[in-house]
């Protein structure tokens, strides 16, 4: 992530904050995605509400993000706008060093004065990008195909117990069984 002027807009000064709840609002557009030097999203816009609960040992961040980004259809290569909405949480615990503990928990040094939420915003937005990017005009066609597949009926039949018969054994296997058992 670069330290560009665009990314610094997402700095939150935590050193002077008291131990209580705070709400922040952030907006981003094409400049945000370009400043991050990534290939997932080129064009898009979002509005985010970030709740920050500060205590003496940690920061609990809650993200409520909505917007849209431009995707390229895997089928037709046409560009289209895809809306998204996501709610996520991140916990930053104060510790002796910076370390990622899990997807939701991160350690930050005790003397951290500022946190930048741009990386979290992008990561959470990136998680909403669908693996299969279909233009909306193809989605109804695809859902009809899926419905056809789910409407297919499988019919199972079973043979009544009195009609069951032993499967025929290949004579070569029968000869091998005789050799194994010691009979000729």
Count of extended strands: 8
The rough form would be described as: elongated
Most strands sheet? 6 strands, mixed
Q: Overall pLDDT, averaged?
A: 84
Distance between the termini: 79 Å
Work out the helicity level: 25-40%
Number of helices: 5
Which spans of ≥5 residues are poorly predicted at pLDDT below 50? none
Q: Which structural class fits the helix and strand makeup?
A: alpha+beta
Global Rg: 29 Å
Strand order of the largest sheet: 2-3-4-5-7-6
Give the SSE string: HEEHEEEEEEHHH
Portion of residues in beta strands equals: 25-35%
What can you tell me about this protein's structure?
The protein has a six-stranded mixed beta sheet. A hairpin with a 6-residue loop joins β4 and β5 (79-95). It has helices at 5-8, 30-35, 118-126, 136-151, 171-181; strands at residues 11-13, 21-28, 44-54, 58-72, 79-95, 99-100, 105-109, 114-116. It is of the alpha+beta class and 184 residues long. The model has no long low-confidence stretch (mean pLDDT 84).
Keywords:
184 residues, alpha+beta, two-stranded antiparallel ribbon, 25% helix, elongated
Short summary:
With 184 residues, this protein is of the alpha+beta class. The protein contains 5 helices and 8 strands; from the N terminus they run H-E-E-H-E-E-E-E-E-E-H-H-H.
